[in-house]
Specification:
Layout: E1 2-4, H1 10-21, E2 26-30, H2 34-45, E3 51-55, H3 61-75, E4 80-83, H4 98-125, E5 129-134, H5 138-141, H6 148-168, E6 173-180, H7 186-189, H8 194-202, H9 212-223, E7 235-238
Parallel strand pairs: 1-2, 1-4, 2-3, 4-5, 5-6, 6-7
Helix pairs in contact: 1-2, 1-9, 3-4, 4-6
Amino acid sequence: MALVTGGGVGIGRSIAVALGQAGADVAVNYRTHAAEAEETAAAIRALGRRAMAVGADVRYTAAVEAMMAEVAATLGGLHILVNNAGVAGPGLLAEIGDDDWDLILDVNLKGAFLCCRAAVPRIVASGGGSIINIGSNAGRTGGTPHQVAYAASKAGLDGLTKALSRELVRPGVRVNCVAPTTVGTDMVLGRASAEELAERTQSIPLGRFGKPEEVAAAVVFLADDAAAAAITGQTMYVNGGAWMG
């Protein structure tokens, strides 16, 4: 039983479908992409797994708690949480406003915290499991000059991953992070100029953007209680060599 936040489009959709292919029943969370979330759930049901679309704004405690209760009741528990919901935006220090900063930090970092807090008792009740946070290369490198809020939120997500991995190891919950470089989703391709896309490509030794399916494969591996049994507190960089630490 898995929940993927922001699971209707882009990377989230690939993760949700890949988990279904791996044998999980999946809840697909959305805030604004209801039709896409239902399409993703239908694709998972076509694989012979149970799936549901569930709307909730991860910035708000009450919405998150209601979502977790609904998912656990419908799927019979919760074993895997993927905190994928995220937003980006313009972020030069002199230009970003308070509302933009709050939105990015609230969705990307506070949302993950709220989902973890609500999910952990249910994961433990299901016998343990895995939390995978979707970070970013920007959390380690600072990203581009326009990503101050986004980079800060993703760096915080990396710290949250490490802290929770220590706290939750004895209750049987592994916590890891998957941090891609630029992935060729509509959110990225629709926002950046041709010049910026070319510059980003040049910064990746592999010579291309990542693919949503590559991020999803890393998530499926980390969610596997057999294959990744000894892995917790780690950030896996799916970045084409864009950062080598």
